[in-house]
User: What shape does this take?
Amino acid sequence: MARQCQVTGKKGLNGHRVSHANNKSNHVQQANLQKKRIFVPELNRWVSVKLSTRAIRSLDRKGPYVTLKEAGLI
Assistant: This one.
């Protein structure tokens, strides 16, 4: 599975590290992903998902069932 949030679709960004001598080397900033097991009371089961920390906040605000349903995971 890719390093991508399953709810928001966030993934890494490409760019360069630039030295004082203006040498450029490739650099990737990865999204802050966490693997979470979430209990969904409406389904009475646990769901494992890979979420960005922003998606975890959305999950707390909207609730697990609504958030995962909008993302098409359940």
The chain is about 25% helix and 40% strand. Helices lie at 53-62, 64-71.
